[in-house]
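FAQ: What does a ligand-bound record look like?

Like this one, built around glyceraldehyde-3-phosphate:
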Amino acid sequence: MELVNGFTLMNYAKEKGLVLPAFNTTNYELTVGIVKGFQATGLGGYIAISSSNLKLSNPKIISDMVHSAMADISTPISLHLDHGKSFEDVKACIEAGFTSIMVDASHLTFEENIREVQRTVEYCHFYGIPVEAELGAIQGKEDDHVSEEDTKTNPDDVQEFVERTGCDLLAVSIGNVHGMDLTPDLDFPLLETIASISKVPLVLHGGSGIPFEQVRKAKENNLIKVNYGSDLRQAFIGTFGQAYEKNHNEFDIMSLSKEAIQSVQNRVEVIIKEVNIS
Ligand code: G3H
Ligand code: ZN
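The answer part, i.e. the structure of the complex:
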């Protein structure tokens, strides 16, 4: 199946009442595990790659890899640039066929963040691609990027930010954290307030480690997308780590890669089902 446009995927989520998981990939085997997980559940979502990770593989490689992994599947999937850190990355991803974009300028001042999102929106909308923007800073480790900053989204800024930027999805900071080292502590009253103000659906980063019932609760507050990175990476890396612990002479990379794909698929299936149980 071809990649699905991000706007089409958002409409699919609204029609079916789903929260869409976005799974970060890095390599082919991880991608295959994610795709198989989507296919097994029959539900759609995002395959995402962050700007940091593009230092390892460029957008064209990622796009080709995802297309190839998706050859036999029938569930709707968008290819998403996660934490887009530069306008160059945004342009390269659009050119490579990505169907959804995030611009992350949340480390800048409010006005600078707005300007950066505005020019990304102008560019992406010309190509019919939706844009996710972030307001507030999320603490923790995302690929090789570590942020000490923990600034919750200020609800008083939400309306102006969404209206002036023209973004299509809003990533919020409500006590969610990146990685496995910090404990998430979601502020639901804040989420409710933001949801009542924002004209666009909300996105929760740092899905790994957030109890599923909390994601389901967040779904009642206009949450359309939840991001998972570390969870699948642990499933993937764990396969190799455990095999090496058992046998320091292990070298059967083929069998272990198949096992790792299966572990990722299992986690993907659990996550997709758990966040959408009603
Ligand atoms: O953008 C990606 C996610 O926010 C990943 O966060 O590694 O805590 O699941 P996570
Ligand atoms: Zn994130």
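Follow-up question: can I read anything off the structure? Yes, for example: The longest helix spans residues 253-276.
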